[in-house]
Amino acid sequence: MPGFNDAHIHPTPLYDEMSPWGTIDCSPAATPTIDALVARLREKAAVTPRGQWVRGGSYQDTKLGRHPTRDDLDRVSTEHPVLIGHSSGHVAACNSLALKAAGIDADAADPKGGRFDRDADGRPNGVLRESAVGIVKGAGPERPTPDTATWIKALHRRFDDYLAAGITSIQHAGTSLATVERYRRAQAARRQVRIYAMLRSGEIDELEQIIADHGRGDDWLQLGGIKTFQGNSLSGQTCWLSKPYDNRPDYYGIPPSRSLESLIDRISGIHEAGLQACIHANGDREIAMVLDAYEEVLARSPRPDHRHRIEHASVCPDELVARIKELGIVLAPHSYIWEHGDKMEAYGSWRWDFMHPNGSALAAGVAIAGNSDSPVSAAVPMLRIQSMVTRTSAEGKVYGASQRLSVLDAIRAWTLGSAYASHQDHRKGSLTPGKLADFVVLAADPRTTPPDALRHIDVELTIVGGEVVYRQEGSTLPAPVGRPLSPDAAAPASR
Question: Considering 425, 441, 457, which residue would you say is the last residue of a domain?
Answer without folding.
Answer: 441
